[in-house]
């Protein structure tokens, strides 16, 4: 066969035969991380390797998939479609492990849970133990992350379910309350307001503040930001963290006042380390919920875990 005929034959091969399927994973990681640098770190390769993979993928697809605006990467319209396809492929690949298990075992597979720090629940602990005894061949993969990351992992179908904080209005996301939470202001025994019983809310408006990273407009704890703004707080935000126990550490250190769920602060209050500030009734409710994507195709292990967890918490 002549060289021209070989080249022509290769060109006519369908895309699925020519495509390097590994590039789907690289592309998905770039989208998730929103950065070539972060994608390289997650994949344990160099930035140039990630950039070259993206370029090869675009060449094989025949379209520009991402554009760079300064330090930001954004998807083109074709890139959005390819990303959705890659997520569908990822969902199907996740089912391979379950499909290849011994069919004699009734339920096998993996359940990935993205969750915030600070979720303490005897009922949840009991559920996990009971679930493992009932389904010993289902493995759990638990990732601790910020409230916003929990939501994104659920929206993007990277997790089987999430446990965290949520506002209503996310398309295809359903949720169920696991733990009601009431947030209030606290200061530590090192703070000048500690032990004061004569305080009113006007006394704390100018105090430096320790904030959750999700305590911003548009984020899961934005109701705290709304409360501060509506009451005219003028103190500086001097420290922030997505982790409730780091927030408590910062408050205990006397860096500033801050918000904590009452049930997490109570031990330190009883121990004389924290002092509840006005208003005494607290400021906002921000319940811990389980959330799942009702459009995600779920394995039997994932479906059973979600349904049994929902039944375990009657609210």
TrEMBL record:
Signal sequence extent: none
Pfam family of the protein (one): LysR_substrate
Keyword terms, alphabetized: DNA-binding, Transcription, Transcription regulation
Domain of life where this protein originates: Bacteria
InterPro entries in the record: LysR_HTH_N, LysR_subst-bd, WH-like_DNA-bd_sf, WH_DNA-bd_sf
HTH lysR-type domain sequence ranges: 19-76
GO molecular function: DNA-binding transcription factor activity; transcription cis-regulatory region binding
Similarity annotation: Belongs to the LysR transcriptional regulatory family.
Protein name: HTH lysR-type domain-containing protein
Organism: Acetobacter malorum
Classification of source organism: Bacteria, Pseudomonadati, Pseudomonadota, Alphaproteobacteria, Acetobacterales
């Amino acid at each position: 066969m002549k060289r021209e005929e070989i080249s022509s034959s290769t060109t006519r091969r369908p895309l699925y035969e020519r495509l390097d399927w590994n590039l789907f994973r690289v592309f998905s990681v770039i989208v998730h991380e929103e950065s070539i640098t972060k994608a390289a770190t997650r994949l344990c390769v160099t930035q140039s390797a990630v950039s070259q993979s993206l370029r090869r993928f675009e060449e094989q697809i025949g379209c520009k998939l991402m554009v760079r605006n300064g330090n930001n990467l954004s998807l083109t319209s074709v890139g959005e479609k390819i990303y959705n396809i890659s997520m569908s492929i990822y969902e199907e690949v996740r089912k391979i492990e379950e499909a290849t298990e011994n069919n004699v075992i009734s339920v096998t597979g993996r359940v990935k849970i993205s969750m915030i720090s600070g979720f303490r629940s005897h009922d949840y602990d009991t559920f996990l133990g009971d679930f493992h005894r009932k389904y010993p061949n289902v493995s759990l993969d638990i990732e601790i992350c910020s409230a916003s990351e929990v939501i994104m992992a659920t929206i993007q179908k990277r997790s089987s379910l999430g446990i965290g904080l949520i506002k209503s209005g996310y398309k295809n996301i359903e949720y169920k309350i696991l733990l009601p939470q009431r947030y209030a202001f606290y200061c530590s025994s090192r703070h000048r307001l500690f032990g004061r019983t004569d305080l009113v809310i006007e006394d704390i408006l100018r105090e430096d503040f320790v904030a959750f990273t999700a305590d911003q407009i548009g984020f899961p704890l934005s109701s705290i930001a709304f409360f501060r703004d509506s009451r005219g707080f003028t103190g500086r935000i001097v420290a922030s963290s997505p982790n409730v126990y780091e927030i408590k550490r910062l408050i205990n250190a006397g860096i500033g006042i801050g918000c904590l769920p009452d049930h997490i602060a109570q031990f330190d209050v009883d121990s004389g380390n924290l002092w509840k500030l006005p208003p005494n009734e607290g400021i906002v409710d921000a319940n811990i919920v389980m959330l799942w994507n009702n459009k995600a195709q779920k394995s039997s292990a994932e479906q059973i875990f979600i349904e049994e967890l929902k039944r375990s918490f009657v609210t």
